[in-house]
Design brief:
By secondary structure, the protein is mainly alpha-helical. The chain is built from 3 helices and 2 strands; from the N terminus they run αβααβ. The chain has one domain (3-81). The chain has a two-stranded parallel ribbon. The model has no long low-confidence stretch (mean pLDDT 90). It comes from Nostoc cf. edaphicum LEGE 07299. This is Restriction endonuclease domain-containing protein.
């Protein structure tokens, strides 16, 4: 993975998580997910505004068009978000 695609992926993960948190305030994050969010928030400033806006739109669309319909998030009694470790040995 190139440094640029890694940056884009981290920002997209951050934004998707933020959209879910904003939409469903009762969501909880694992320690790993919380640490990843804290780490990755600074990466938003590394992108140009046009790309950042496109990634924000993609994160919102993902929630609206796939996550919520697929998993019925609005009907879940609780939601916990975790993020994969940086070096997933199983992929």
């Amino acid at each position: 993975m190139t440094p640029r695609s890694n940056l884009h992926g981290r920002v997209l993960e951050y934004l998707i998580t933020e959209v879910i948190i904003r939409t469903y305030p009762e969501v909880s994050l694992t320690i790993r997910a919380n640490n990843a969010q804290l780490r990755d928030v600074s990466k938003l400033t590394e992108l140009n505004l046009l790309l950042l806006n496109e990634l924000r739109l993609a994160a919102n669309a993902l929630l609206l068009l796939w996550l919520n319909p697929q998993f019925h998030l609005s009907k879940q009694p609780s939601i916990t978000i975790d993020r994969l470790p940086d070096q997933n040995k199983y992929v």
